Predict the structure.
Amino acid sequence: MKRFRKGIRLPEFKDRTLASIQIHLPSSPSVVTIPLNHKANGPLAPCVQEGDPVCVGTKLAEGSDQNSVPVYSSVSGCVSKVCQDLIQIESDYADRLDRSIKVREEIPSDASQLIEMIREAGMVDLGGSGIPIHTRLLDARSSGVEFVIVNGCESEPFLTADHVLVMNYPAEILKGAELIRIACGAKRAVIAVERNKREAAELLNSKNYNLKIKTIETMMLPVRYPQDSEGVLAETVTDKVMDPNSSIISQGVLVEHVATAFGVYEAIYLRKPLYERVVTVSGPCFAEPKNMWARTGVPAIELIRESKGFLRDPDRVIFGGPMTGQAISDLQTPVTMDVTGIVALPHELVPSEEEEACIRCGLCVDVCPEALVPETLVRAVRIHNDRLAQEYDIDACTECGCCAYVCPSKIPIIRVIQEGKRNVCEKTASTSVPTLHHRPLRAVGAMTAGASHSELP
Ligand code: SF4
Ligand code: SF4
């Protein structure tokens, strides 16, 4: 195993949601809003009309394009609104399941059949990107990948949804990982977890002792952010240097998430489409932070109420982790299947916007896991020199946030890099870049011994 030298050690803040490994089951939401053009999935055409009755798991919309996946209802009730961008369902609180959801008698071993079933179940990457995973499986198959890495590292502060998922469903995750391996034609699968989840790794090993899936092993990795970044993870597990200018899949490795492996298990073994996932609802502002099942389209406020609301007003509410997540301005925002958590932060954990001049300390360079020079990228973008930004490999930035976290001058490095990527994209007529609306939490590190750069091992 290769140890990646850069990155940072972050405070974990995971204790409160790991006090119990139980996954809370919230009551049925009154209304859900399902987007029809979300991230890489869409546009989708509705297959229901206003007034139609639906069950949990009824297909709501699908695309004509083979790269998209259908979306399904997460409640039973009545379709109350259908428009170009969304479908709204009013719940009858009965949670009647669609008749298509039933245990599959025979599990196919044909890769093409598995991939089509995964597509039909609406499976997207549950690690945060929201990309339909059948496209990644097809790509991996045609590239002849050797390795599947199932990412259970969860290295961002506060998030513990993956950890409790493994603790509750180890056998299902092992079976899902094996299905992903068969579907993409890889020889081996590795379930990677950080060393702070030793009991999860031991549980996976003991379950596999009974299941005897010889192609899967568990690997424990150092606790370091961003250990779960695709490139870093592939390098650490395979002990090979990955070329940042080509995709990880084309270099023989497919990285999928533990939650995705669990979703694939449910899709194949139970014929259950994707309409719910586990999320962490946490942060110092919550009265009772916990891990819970979140249905697609549920307003964030309903999950916040399930955690007994806020003890004090948050300065920022984020979908995802504090390093890579996206701040939301409206608590009615519907949760989608790429949301790994809802984190509410008080004022003292939100970085100040008062930027100072770069002092050329080089800390950002020291921590960048992609070996970039963030300080030069910032300068290139600010003087509108796209050529220099490209020369310094702006597109290789994974937006992990390590540089902004350690920057003593509070320079919003990611925001500037994102702007630079957009400029380059516009000029090369390439695809758009997702936007982060907040800076990673420098203040988090300031609070905690062991988090500052000078103390990095
Ligand atoms: S430049 Fe990009 S990849 Fe490097 S530390 Fe900053 S955000 Fe991460
Ligand atoms: S960490 Fe901040 S102050 Fe230091 S070199 Fe990088 S951008 Fe400049």
Remarks:
- The longest strand covers residues 188-194.
